[in-house]
Amino acid sequence: MSDAEPIMRNSLSLPRSATAAASPPRAERAARVAGDVPRRAWTFYALAAFFSAYVLFLYGPMLCMYVLSFQGPQGALSFPMRGWSLHWFQQLWSGRTADLAGAISRSIPLALIVMAITVVFSVAAGLGFRRRVRGSSAIFYAVIVSLTAPGYILGIGIGLMFSLFGWQTSWFSSALGAHLSWTLPFGVLITFAVFGRFNGAYEEAARDLGASPSQTLRMVVLPILAPGIIAIALFGFTLSYDEFARTLQTTGPSNTVPIEIWSMTQNVTSPAIYALGTVTTAVSFLFIGTALAAVTLIQRRRAAAPRTH
Amino acid sequence: MLARYKPYLQLAPLTAVLLLFVAAPLVLVVVVSFFRSDGFDTIPAFTFENYHAILSSGLTASLYLKMIKYAAMTWAASLVIGFFVAYFLVFHVRNRNLAIGLFLVCTVPFWTSNVIRMISWMPVLAEQGVVNSALLKLGLIRVPLRILLFSDFSVVLAYVHLFTIFMIVPIFNSMSRIDRNLFEAALDAGASRLDTLRLVVLPLTKSGIVMGSIFVVTLVMGDFYVVKVMSGGGSASVVSAMYDNVSTLLFPPAAASAVILLLILTVLIAILTRFVDVRQELVQQP
Amino acid sequence: MASTISSPEAAAPARGEPNGGVVLAGLTKRFADGLVAVDGIDLRIEPGTYCCLLGPSGCGKTTMLRMIAGHETPSEGAILIDGRNVTGRSPRERGTAMMFQNYALFPHLSVRDNVAFALRVRGIDRKARLREADRVIEQVQLSALAERLPGQLSGGQQQRVALARAIIMRPTVLLLDEPLSALDEFLRLQMRGELRGMQRELGITFIHVTHTQLEAIAVADQVVVMDKGRIAQSAPPREIYAQPRTEYVAAFIGGQNVLHGQVTRFDDACVTLAGANGAHYVLPRDAAPVAQGQTLSFAVRRDRMGVSGEPADPSFAPNTLGGRVRELEYQGIYMKVSVATDDPATPGCVVYVEENTFFRDPVSVGQRVRCHWAFGEAHGLA
Q1: How many domains does chain A fold into?
Q2: C85 pLDDT higher than 60
Q3: CATH number at residue C178
Q4: Are 3 or more Cβ–Cβ pairs between A and B shorter than 8 Å?
Q5: CATH number of the domain at B48-283, out of 3.40.50.150, 1.10.3720.10, 3.40.50.1970, 3.10.20.740?
Q6: Contact: B17, A188; criterion CB under 8 Å
Q7: C–B contact (≥3 CB pairs within 8 Å)?
Q8: pLDDT digits (tens, 9 = 90+) for B168-179
């Protein structure tokens, strides 16, 4: 075969068709011999345009919001821009429009705790799911239920449960649990994807070489799974930080950031809310960026993954 | 010997959380739905009066119909968008790293809170918003369009904006597993591009489509704030009615409403999962 | 901090003496679904030899290997290494090391760290273990690649790393699970010579699992042919090839024609069998008891048969079989002649005719021919 295209090449985009002339024109043949890439079909351009439109659709509104949050004191909820300043950010911080600082100071520690617990529980569950033990199907379906049941209903349920037992709903009990019920399924799904490719031979090799189970876990299993673990941490943090529906009924008296925003949409009519959106997005992105950088670093170190199948 | 119990120990923490924060609450919701409420307290009882009230109420039917309408429109739009976006990423982008990069670009907005993404549409769709200003400047309209915001259109638009990613991911997943040689085999057999799409790609992507549909529909049906905000505060949804009940401490009716919604969703999912092996799809083990 | 790194757990005999003798007594493995993978195996492997476990998929060879390694627990029976009963002990305590199919090299560790792993888990300090790792890496001639990650190595290089990783603890028995299957044809032939050389150099026992007959007879001192959890024959390669004990071994090892007939006459020296269509065979008598009318099978090596055109006189000389040439395949050194025989119990015969011999008097496809062999070339199968 003269061409060695990567596997992703779409052969539908080949210029060849059933009714093409018997032999391609000389110029084209010459180009092919020289290693030229075949021309793309019109569908590529159409789909590329469609994709770009979708990305614009996704990011457009948020970009508007970021821009608007930098308006001056005359600013309103929509365009045109009235002035440039950090006025609304100051408003936010001063606490006059909403208890932002308070909400953030609560949301972040909660998110970090949820992240840590999610990682540990998901990885453990991923290890446990490898063999089809009794009840693993039931657990699997419970995970699916947790993902598809409307979050608000679960929130009600948790709130009811706590009031039934006379416990006070609070951050580190009910809200924590509600968040975990949302982040754990994602964590478990990721471990499925990652563990599906994890070859049990590594553990056996480690055991053969004399490693104890804890050494095997520490030195072989976890390092190999590190990118997956980072992905779970990522999900754990951001899902908790952004979680809204389930949390409404379970935080007790003090609010998380999304709930704070929600209450602001009910009664605040100034660009402060956009400023809040910008700030909270920045926090999420900061976290994502760190996680992705870590993963890329690890992947680059490993070069091409060995094909062990 | 301990090794035999290891898997159970490993699954224990997850199971505990699921029992405590998913199973128990749901059971409780079902139980409370049979209680009585006198406007202030919730009285333990066993009565069908809540269900009766809800099921005989015209409001319930209209709310459900409205949500089903939204769900259907969102499903259709997200399916079309999701399918072609995934198709583009999997089959038209040649560099695998670029494909994954573009895929991540699509998922990044997911990390921002839904509430924020929703309200960010306001300046865009408002009467003085970006879209209207652009259309006016281009001379395509003379008066700002009012239906862009606070209407059915804005609600569905918001849903599509928020939830299409849940359609893209499973479809992307399914499509990635299609053997590329199948395209050449189809071409060889004389199939046109459209034929190949219809007879090869679509059947093999079925499981991804079903998973995505389940996610999108349950998310729309379970929503309560998008509808409220994007319709200008006037419209309610099934779950926002629940919210109103809860705000006034009417737990039993809210619970009954929740149970009805859950039943409907369960039936829907049961129907859809007949077409796909969920465990196979998600666990990806042979 | 050991300055001399050895495997303290296994009591190794004095250096210079071959070690790693393995004895299996009544070894059985029954799986939960009722499958008996290994069925009451008794086997003796001499220390310092190269032993191949040979058989098709599902014959139990890999399960047996894993039981010797300590990765699978026997349902019954005992495993002795150098006289010590190691049944139930962990791999670490046995003095064995395993080379896994597809190598199982830790993808996140460099070659050097992979090789030093066994020392690391025993708490040897960093400098000492890296020094020892480098020594072993040099033994397998990979010093230039010590910093690389497994993903950056070729198949043959990965195998050498796997080998180095296994031998660093100086095991007395090295277990290899289909070590050459992941390689392409050319590399396979090359690496198999290296394995043989390494075994000689180390002087320890190698137990090598494979499903490739030619590979087994090329490298092994002792070939153990397995069938459905039992040993069909255990012998040096030459004996297996020249004198397969059963029809199964003959068919599996290849290079044999298996024929059948009914006993018409026998004495102390030979047995006469009647085949189909008037053919009759005379073979040397072996120790097995023989009865009149009994159906016996026997094997003749493909390269010990001859093919000639059918003679005018159709009467049957002993030890001949008539048929029609079905196919001719040139193999360089010999011509492979496939014959559709007249005997329905033996539908096909394959004869390897030496090149010059064939072309002196060639036969063609479709021609009627006679296969023939000498009395001493036939030997009975159990």
Answers
A1: 2
A2: yes
A3: 3.40.50.300
A4: yes
A5: 1.10.3720.10
A6: no
A7: no
A8: 988 998 888 888
